[in-house]
Amino acid sequence: MYFSGDHLHSQMSRQQPGHLAIDYTRTMMGFLLFNSTPVHIAMIGLGGGSMLKFCYHHLPQTQLTVIEINPHVIALKEEFEVPDDPARITLICGDGAAFVRDASTEQDVLLVDGFDGEGQALSLCSQAFYNDCYQTLAHKGLMVANMNTEHPDHEVFMGRIRLAFDNDVLEIASAEKTNHIVFACKGQAISIDELRKSQWQKNVDEATRAQLGFEFKRIARELSKTD
After folding, report:
1. What does pTM read for this prediction?
2. CA dihedral in degrees (130, 177, 113, 187; nearest 10)?
3. Secondary structure of the chain: what % helix, strand, coil (to 5)?
4. pLDDT tens per residue, range 111-143
5. N or C terminus of the chain: which is more exposed, having fewer CB within 10 Å?
6. Residue 122 burial (CB < 10 Å; 0-12/13-18/19+)?
7. Which three-class secondary structure state does DSSP give residue 212?
8. Radius of gyration (Cα) for the chain, nearest Å?
């Protein structure tokens, strides 16, 4: 899926529709290191549904809510083989900023991948937005945001995230360094000690480890540097 020109937004293998084909999506799924059994996950941005499909297949006990502002993207969900399961998946055509502002259900994980034809959506970069993300998370909840480091206000946005989350933030480049992924935690420091106590290995299946093992190791290395 392309928004315009050479701006690749989503990619799917017909042979492996549930595979995370783009590197930054694998980095974002690194939240499993900190919470491998989330009850509720909300995703801002559907795209080709790669992270939704991955979570649907590998986290069978998790309720999934997806907020996508562009109805044309939603219209392509069958072409991208996005599961149709109203019992587990709630798909909302709407504004992600409004969703976190008005949400009545606490989220264990909030995945923010809000890009459009103009790049990073500015409505998903305000101080109010990040404050609302913090408020809608459960205790020890995680916000995971895909950020464009080439945006001229990237450091301003990072400062807003640090302020909202009391500096419990880890920023890590995706494997191909095209994006930076930010992990921000509510009520718990992101640290190598917390990772060691998380016991994520007990709850992550072999197929998940096979696809994300490299990312898990990279994130653990970055955490070790911050302690």
Report:
1. 0.90
2. -40
3. 35, 20, 40
4. 999 887 677 888 999 999 999 999 999 999 999
5. C
6. middle
7. helix
8. 16
User: Residue 141 in 3-state DSSP?
Assistant: strand
Structure tokens at 63: 């309720």
* Residue 173 φ then ψ, to 5°: -70, 145
The amino acid occupying position 213 is: G
> 120: how many CB neighbours lie within 10 A of its CB?
21
Question: How far apart are the C-alpha atoms of 89 and 52, rounded to whole Å?
Answer: 9
Shortest CA distance to 122 belongs to which of 153, 94, 159? 153
Checking phi first, is residue 2 left (phi over 0); if not, alpha (psi -120 to 50) or beta? beta
Distance CA 12, CA 52 (A): 12
CA distance 65 to 90: 5
Give the CATH number of domain 26-45+101-214; options: 3.40.50, 3.30.1890, 3.90.320, 3.30.1360.
3.40.50
One-letter amino acid at 124 equals: L
What DSSP state is assigned to residue 15? Answer: S
Q: Where are the beta strands (DSSP E) in 22-179?
A: 40-44, 63-68, 89-93, 107-112, 115-116, 119-120, 137-147, 169-173
Separation of alpha carbons 54 and 72, rounded Å: 22
Inter-helix orientation angle 127-136/154-164, to 10°:
40
Q: How is the chain split into domains, by residue range?
A: 26-45+101-214
Q: Kindly report, residue by residue over 36-52, the tens digit of the pLDDT.
A: 999 999 999 998 899 99
